[in-house]
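Fig. S4 source data, part A: sequence.
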Amino acid sequence: MIHQLGALFSRVYLRYMPNAFVFAILLTFITGFGSYIWLEASLFEIIKSWYHGFFDLISFAMQIVLIIITGFSIALSPAVKKGIDALSKHIKTPTQVYFLVVFIGMILSLVSFGWLVITSVLARELALRVKGINYPFLIACVYFSFNSWVLGLSSSIPLLLNSENNFLIENGVLTDIIPTSFTLQSSLNIAMIFLLVIVAPFVMFLLRPKSSENKELKDLLVSNESKNKQTIKEEAVSLNLPYRTLSDSLNNSVILQMIVVLMGLSYIIFHFSTKGLDLNFNIMIFIFLIIGMLLHKTPARYVISMKRSSSNISGILFQYPFYAGIMGIMLYTGLGDRLGDVMASIATLETYPFFAYLIGGIVNFAIPSAGGEFAVIGPSLINAITEIGVGLPQEKITAMIARASLSTAYGESLSNMLQPFYLLIVMPIMGKGVKLQARDIMGYLVIPFLIFFIIQSLLIVCWPL
């Protein structure tokens, strides 16, 4: 029965879901229409808000691009290839691959959501080695494993609340920081970690398709990349002139590259010794870059690895500005504030976590960035909680704000299973040379979404903080 439901949702998505760019355009229209009807914003006001937001995520988009290509470059190194070859000797069946990918992906995403790149590389390489894998479902497993990032070290909303002089404090919405003991270290968050890291692999195991006919990676490749392809080392050698030159010596200098690696490693040690386990985007990119240079050994090989890693990132480059434009409409027309006001009018002491969870999921369709979303709805959300908790001790109100903020983050993360935005991180790696679109993958995530929506809703309302 459950397999039939999964197949049904897959067919529905294949029939009705457009590609990711058209999805972004439709969301732009829907958000604009909401501002026009609900807030009576003029058409040109909506267009101006759209334009003002259009370039707000440019730096974020560049960070995502660098996370992908530096992470993919590491995966193309001989050392990683040997490691995956060794692992694949012990992984013999598609079922084992699905389970392992979700479990490892959940662990990696707890460290940083940028490590979704590593999960993508591992999954693709296993798909090349293990027969019988339904490749679209495997991509869905990778994408689902991304959910745990919001519980871990790079969770942007809890880290924001714990940051000195954050915009909420500067604007008088909060009077002080909210320590991570109320959020990431809370009993509620630990329960969510257990749910996703331990339970989620079994759920995806139970939902696995029975058939992989015409769905294996080898069936979907436009060209067979696993054959007749030079290694990076071979391509680097082929670029050399037939006689000795200073330029070739520099291009293939291990010493030159290792000096840069030592410089990078010295800063990485300094960063963590002075700032603790601060895994922001910039340091993650820098770590990936230095590790890639170390593993590829020479400038020539590293350049080739980066060229190969960069060949499929066009979707990110032009789609991120459209989502930033949607965020602009939400922010500059006041639509985000209005959603917070709605919550304040209907939520109670018992129901506010669920409404925060629901709003987090809904707004994510328009602003698929937890930090960006909270910048838009966070102030009105916190004001609503403060209003609901009038007369309660300050520590109780702080705990309520923490629970509501976590709920918003959980809702934002889970609704990505219905929103293909972050497939832009996965598809440059797993979709390379493959005839697949978002609609081929998203249908497999509907049932996991429904299961975890019910469980998470109960946890955020009933589980002690």
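Fig. S4 source data, part B ends here. The chain is about 70% helix and 0% strand.
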